[in-house]
Design goal:
The chain is an alpha+beta fold. About 35% of the residues lie in helices and about 10% in strands. Helix 5 packs antiparallel against helix 7, helix 9 packs across helix 13 and helix 11 packs across helix 13.
Amino acid sequence: MKKFFLGTLIALLPAIAIGAEGVIAPPWAYPATDPGLQREADDGSVKHVPGSNEAFTRREVGNFFGVKDWFPNERPPMPDVVQNGRRPDVRGCAGCHLPNGLGHPESADLAGLPAEYFFQQVKDFQSGKRKNVLPARSNGMVTIAKAMTDDEIKSAAGYFSSLKPQPWIKMKEAETVPVTYVGGGNMRYVKPDAGTEALGQRIIEIPEDSELVDLRDTHSGFIAYVPAGSIKKGEALVTTGGNGKTISCAVCHGPELKGLGNVPGIAGLHPIYVVRQLLDIQQGARDGAPTQLMKGVVAKLTENDIVNIAAYVSSRTP
C-alpha cells in the first residue's frame, strides 16, 4: 500500500502545486514565468500594429507608468491612475488589463465590471481577503491595491465600468494542443517546432498572434483550447445546477450571464481566469463579502466540473 501511494503521489507531482495556505493550484491554471527566462531586448526600433496610426518602441509599450493605446479614439480618455499610475507602487491599470479592459489570460477582464464590485475587490486585495495563490506568480496586484487611494480606485472603477465587453477569445474543443511554454508576464506561448501534446482535462490559452499580443494590441485576442465535450457538460452544470451539485449561474449572474445589478457578468471571460477564481473561492483564497454566496455554489465541484463550467461560460457572448 505504501509503495502504491508513493508511486501515485510522484505521478501527480507535475500536475499539482501547493499555494498559499495549502491551496491546490494546478500549474496549467496558474502558469508562472520561468525565473530564468531571458526576455527579448528592445532594439529601439519603432513598432506598428494593423489599423493603427500610432508608433511605439517595445520599451514604450512595456512602460506601465505611461501606458500606450494603439487605438485611443475607440474609448474615453484613460484617467491618470489607469494610464500612468503613481510611482513607486501603483502601476497604470491599463498596463495589465489593457486600455480596452479585456486583459490577458493572467489578468482579469474588467470591461463593464460594476463600479461598486470593482471597488470592493480592490479593497479585498488591500485587506488580505483576496490574495494570490502561488508565490511564484506576481504579487503585483496586492502591492498596487495596497498603495491606491480610495479616489484612485473610484476613478479606475468608473473608467472600466464604462467600457463595453467584447468577444476576445476563440474557443476550440480539442484532444491535442500545441506544446507551450510560459513566457513573460505569466503568459503561455506556443513552443516553436515542438509539435503537439494531449490536452487532457486542462484549458490551454494562447495568443492568436504572439507578436501583436506582446505589443499589447487591443485588437489581437486569444485562443482557448478546452477538452472535447466540455462546453456541453458545462452547459448542464451552469443552466441546471447538475442535479444538485451546484445551482444555476443565471440566478445571480443573469439569464445570459451578462451580470445582474452589482453582480458581474461572466460570459466571455478568459476561461483560465474563471477556473482560477472558482478554485480560489472554493479553497478560501478569496474570502471577501461578495464571494460568501459563492462558497456553497462551488463547494461540491470537482476540478473537471470547474473546467467544464469555465468552457461553457467563456463560450457565451459577453
